[in-house]
Amino acid sequence: MTTGPKQCLTCERSLHGRVDKKFCDDYCRSIFNNKKYLTERDLVRRVNHLLLRNRRILETFLTGHSSTITILRKNLSAKGFQFDFFTHTYHTADGKKYFCCYDHAYIELFNEELLITRLVTKTESLFIPYSECER
Fold first, then answer.
1. CA–CA dist 64, 67 (Å, integer)
2. Which DSSP string corresponds to 70-81?
3. Residue range 31-41: average pLDDT?
């Protein structure tokens, strides 16, 4: 089986050098990989944008107040809060479910009321021992 000269996957110029070469230069390799991961990165970027916007909205309600406040759900919606986007959930021992957005959380109470709270983070919990990173 005879094949013609290999061509660059980006610009289709003929390749010279290694047998397994795919691109004529770093520029073509970079363009190819950027196109390849564009949709994946775009999705992640949009979701991160929504999560950060939700966090900022929660923060605006807590500014100038204590670490918790009770508001109506419609007030959060009016600011553009997207209830389908949160970073994680937290379940308390008594079965309550908090929806978290980074270091802020909210819980649905009753009559469309929400309790917004700022989570307490421990800097020690962010430390990962070097031995665990190697695994």
1. 9
2. EEEHHHHHHTT-
3. 84
User: What DSSP string describes 121-132?
Assistant: --GGGG---HHH
- What's the token pair of residue 103? 């270091």
Both tokens of 72, joined, read 């109506």
Rg of the chain over all Cα atoms, to the nearest angstrom = 25
Cα–Cα dist 9/6, whole Å: 9
Q: What token pair was written down for 40? A: 């994946």
What 8-state DSSP symbol labels residue 7?
Answer: B
User: Closest by alpha carbon to 68, among 36, 33, 11, 106?
Assistant: 106
**What is the pLDDT, as a whole number, of residue 80?**
95
Is the separation of the CB atoms in 28 and 6 below 8 Å? no
The ranges assigned to domains in the chain are: 53-124
Helix, strand, coil share of the chain (percent; to 5): 35, 20, 45
Residue 131 has pLDDT above 50, yes or no: no
Instruction: Record the pTM.
Output: 0.65
Burial of 9 from C-beta contacts in 10 A (0-12 / 13-18 / 19+):
middle
Q: Which residue has the tokens 């700022």?
A: 118
